[in-house]
Amino acid sequence: MKTLLLNLREQAFYCEYIERAAQALRAGELVAFPTETVYGLGAHRDNAKAIASIFEVKKRPEEKRLTLMIADPEDVKKYVDRFSDTAKILMDSFWPGALAIIFPLKDGSDVSIRLPDNEVARDLIHAAKVPVVTTSANISGHPPATDAQQVLMDLKGKIRIVLDGGSTRYRSPSTIVKLKDGTVEIIRRGIISEVSIRSCLENSFVKV
Question: Stretch 8-17: mean pLDDT, rounded?
Fold first, then answer.
C-alpha cells in the first residue's frame, strides 16, 4: 500500500486534503492525523474491516480499547444516554482538550470519548460524517508519534493517509479517566494531571 503524506500547511489545499482523508475513512481506510497531544490513527467505527486493520497495523492487543473522537460538545449525546454531575463537570472543565472520558452506559457497557483541542482533528471528524475511533499512530510499545515523520517511521505502507499538521502542541498523551458509581478512576496518566482533576471536582464532593 502507498501511504499518502498530505501537508496541511499548504493552505490552498487544506480543505481538499481534509476531504480526501474523510473519504478514506468512510471507505474503511486508516488515516493518521494530528491532535494537540500526539498523532492519532483513525478508523470508521462501524466498519469491521477497518477496526480489525487498526489492531493489526498497530500490533495492538485486542483487549485494549479504542477512543471515539468527536468534533462538537453536543456530539457526546449521540453515544451516551445519561450524564452524571461528575461527567458534566469534567466535560465543562476539560473539553475540548486532552481528556478522554469513559462513560458508563445503561446496558452495562461503556464508551471512551474525547473532544480534541485541535482544528485538524475536528475538521476531519466533521468531514467524515461517520463515527471515528482512534488510538495513537504508532506500533504498540513504540513511543507515540508527535510529528508526521514519526508516524511514517512506524506505519508507512500500512495506512492510506497521513495528514501532516506539523509537530503536536504537547508532545505527550492525553489523560484517560473512567466514571463509575460517582467515582473517577485514572486509567492513564497524561497531560491533565490527577491534581488538576481532583481540584476540579473537590467542590462537588466527588471521590477520585
Answer: 96
pLDDT of 183-193, one tens digit each? 899 999 999 99
> What tens digit of pLDDT does each residue of 16-65 get?
999 999 999 999 999 999 999 999 999 999 999 999 999 999 999 988 99
Contact 41, 155 (CB under 8 A): yes
Cβ pair 25, 44 in contact under 8 A: yes
CA pseudo-torsion sign 77, 181, 112, 84:
positive
Mean pLDDT computed over 72-83: 94
**Dist. CA 184–CA 187, nearest whole Å:** 9
In angstroms, the CA 125 to CA 42 distance is 9
The greatest distance separating any two alpha carbons of the chain, rounded to the nearest whole angstrom, comes to 53
Domain range holding 103?
4-204
Which long-range CB contacts under 8 A does 89-92 form with residues at least 24 apart? 89/200, 89/201, 89/204, 89/206, 90/177, 90/179, 90/184, 90/197, 90/200, 90/201, 91/115
139: left (phi over 0), alpha (psi -120 to 50) or beta: beta
Find the CATH number of the domain harbouring 73: 3.90.870.10
- What is the number of domains present in the chain? 1
